[in-house]
Amino acid sequence: QVRLVESGGGLVQAGGSLRLSCVASGRNFSRYVMYWFRQAPGKEREFVASIKGSASGTHYADSVKGRFTISRDNAKNTMYLQMNNLKPEDTAVYYCSADDEGIHWGQGTQVTVSS
Fold first, then answer.
1. ∠ Cα 107 109 114 (to 5°)
2. Which residues, other chains included, contact 99 with Cβ-Cβ below 8 Å and sequence gap of 6+?
3. Which pLDDT score, from 0 to 100, does residue 79 have?
């Protein structure tokens, strides 16, 4: 079972940037489709971005397209989310997930964007 640990969240002013990281355990990291989701208080968890194991395929939610970039370094078992031009509505707990014969979740990292 894959184990996921997110980091890189924090408090930032609107227009600022953060880079989130997700370190995964497991022998077959390069096989996993990886995802970023986020959940704001009182809201449903929503899809943010995904990336295939080969990194040849990426997808983004319309709300973050053009501002966020998902990437991965399979040699480091790490996935990243570069977040630029952050907006207050981006405030949420951000979770990474991996498709390893089922979806697995990290514990999340808090991103807070002030006006």
1. 150
2. 32, 33, 34, 35
3. 96
